[in-house]
Amino acid sequence: MSAPAIVQIEGVTKRFAGVVAVDDVSLEIRPNEFFALLGPSGCGKTTLLRILAGFERASAGRVLIDDEDMARVPPNRRPVNMVFQSYAVFPHMSVAENVAYGLRVTGAPRPEIGPRVKDALAMVRLSGLEERAPDQLSGGQRQRVALARALIKRPKVLLLDEPLSALDRKLREEMQLELVRLQQEVGITFVIVTHDQEEALSMADRIGVMDQGRLLQVAAPQELYETPSCRMVADFIGKMNLFAGRVIDARADVLRIESELGELRFERAGLGAQESGSAEIGVAVRPEKIRLSYAPPSDGLIGVQGRVAQLAYLGDASLVYVDTSAGRRITCRLPNQHRGAGMPAAVGEICWVAWEPADCLLLTE
């Protein structure tokens, strides 16, 4: 039997002057879990995080942390701590003074503060920098100071609001690995808010995708990527080719769809729970599932003929954009497996793109 949730969000709604920022969200977050709230700007994820922290009050619903209702618990008394996007490191204090700040204002015994500061700095790999000023640190080091200051109070839940967005790409990737290591080492629940899909996929145990204040899907990264529950999630997580379709034949063993790519036929046995009998349906396929060739594909594959319209070299892969006769563009991602192999196609060439029917997603919402 799994452990009871450390965070329970029950029917939480938040309105600002008639605008619904969070719309009837219910969610459970597990002990020792790295959980990500993911979505576009303005989707409500930061507002939900601030409700957890106590900086905003819900218009409806309730939040429980470790089975305690937080309705009357002020932010400074909640078993959480928050790391902000801007770090909020005090410029006039040394590294050690910054980390010790939370303990001092809550009246921790003086003999206890020094050893805890030392442990916290070791945890974030800043040992030896105790006397440095913040302006003598890199962006990544300042972020580690903010993390140490938050963790030194030993919260049950650490809340992170876009904590890596100010860092350059390479440092951000390093800090993603560091945050995962840190979460596993300290063994507490991390809840991170991000709009970066790769960041959420690479770090989180589970991800909750939000849009327009609603929670659309909660799942592990691989499940979220491979079997999104709706078109918005499919389109937001990674790249996706998404085409409109209409069911024209729904027999017990076969499903036929008239789509923007032409008529498509699927064996029911391979569809799982993706298709629910809706007349209007979205047909989706990831770019990396698609093959490119100059001859018609073999039987059993879904194939569409088109013309190469554009190419993009990404280093480890190339994107090939193919325009079909129906006026739709299909994106194909091909790995660059051999040094000096060159681009996989040329603009203007007639080609075929093809993929396995089992790699299609059929989305009814």
Tell me about this structure:
With 365 residues, the protein is of the alpha+beta class. It has two domains: 7-231, Rossmann fold (3-Layer(aba) Sandwich), CATH 3.40.50.300; 239-363, RNA polymerase II/Efflux pump adaptor protein, barrel-sandwich hybrid domain (OB fold (Dihydrolipoamide Acetyltransferase, E2P), Beta Barrel), CATH 2.40.50.100. The protein is 23% helix and 35% strand. The chain contains eight helices and 20 strands. The protein has helices spanning 45-53, 95-105, 110-123, 139-151, 169-186, 197-203, 221-226, 231-236; strands at residues 7-16, 19-29, 34-38, 60-65, 68-69, 80-83, 157-161, 189-194, 206-211, 214-219, 241-250, 254-259, 262-267, 280-285, 291-293, 302-313, 317-324, 329-335, 350-355, 361-363. The protein has a six-stranded mixed beta sheet with strand order 6-7-8-3-9-10, sandwiched between helices. A five-stranded antiparallel beta sheet has the order 13-12-11-14-20. A five-stranded antiparallel beta sheet has the order 15-19-16-17-18, with no helix packed on it. Strand 17 (317-324) and strand 18 form a beta hairpin. Helix 2 packs across helix 3, helix 2 packs parallel to helix 4 (139-151) and helix 3 (110-123) packs across helix 4 (139-151). It is globular, with a radius of gyration of 25 Å.
